[in-house]
Design a protein that fits this description.
single chain, mainly alpha, two-stranded parallel ribbon, 4 strands
Amino acid sequence: MNIPIVRFNRTQSEFSKALRERVDAYFKETGKSRQGDWRMYIKTSVMLATFFVPWGLITFGVTGTGWGFWVTEVIMGFGLAGIGLNVMHDANHGAFSSIKRVNTVIGKVLDLVGGSSAMWKIQHNVLHHSFTNIEGLDEDIDTPGILRFSPERPLKKVHKLQFIYAWFFYSIMTLFWMTAKDWLALSRYRKKGLIKSSGSYVSRLVREMIVSKVLYFSYIIGLPLLFSGLDFWMVLAGWTVMHAVTGLTLASIFQPAHVLEDLQFGQAEAGAKMEDDPLLHQLKSTANFGTGSSIFTWLCGGLNHQIEHHLFPNVCHIHFQALAPIVKRTAEEFGLPYRSSTTFAGALALHARMLWKLGRQENWA
């Protein structure tokens, strides 16, 4: 099965040359590694504890059946989002550590909490990062027909209300991910030849996913049923609440970074050639938000600095605040947009506005 390919301009722009030189100079002059350091190990411990300590309290009946149970599930949901934003994300980009084996092991944390690191790498690293906001290739905007995240997609009447109901789909995003998404992705990527090109094999991935999914559902559903004394419906409801918190949190971080009306979108067509080189495209299709808060930046794994992340995905997020002034200065020097003045709340409002606009306009220049 062939997939449409777009080709970026092979001639590196003056902006890209200057930016790469300045970022290289920053790391050389400071003597810092592009990967993480001891701060990543501390953060990993905090995020894992925020997920597994609440899990232990629920599993062994400490929370009971009252309000404490539901509060604990909510905390666990934030912990799961924290693992995704702060831990496995950097590791699966090869940015957590300068030691490849460490990145591989930490990246497998995603498999431990119910996902598939192998499927995520293809979907996120290969498709989303290579072809950001390009319809037909970037699966972050390739959604079911009831949602429209790109002006390149067909407009339907139901989309008029997506600025309301999209948040429900965000809330079930990770629940769907842990149950069906990875299996559907495996089938889809096999047909597209992406499994082979990633250096893996379908049979091996099937075995790995069966083991990880069985392990996940055994400890997340099975053990609480055995030891907590909770009814099945309550364990299941708590698990659903946890994933609603995680899904909304993740969507609130990732969606305002790319689905905004003043960002660049494209259409994948066989043999299509882009005017921009890869770095220029990333700059034009990505936005920052909430960068004025160090606490918020810490909590979301620096992914409010999406511009820096998309320009340098193999650099650990602990460096993004230092790189941001370099990127901004370079972009302004070449007369390019650097969208980074919005607060987190403002970015969510702009995203909701984009959903509203996409539900009413077929396309726009």
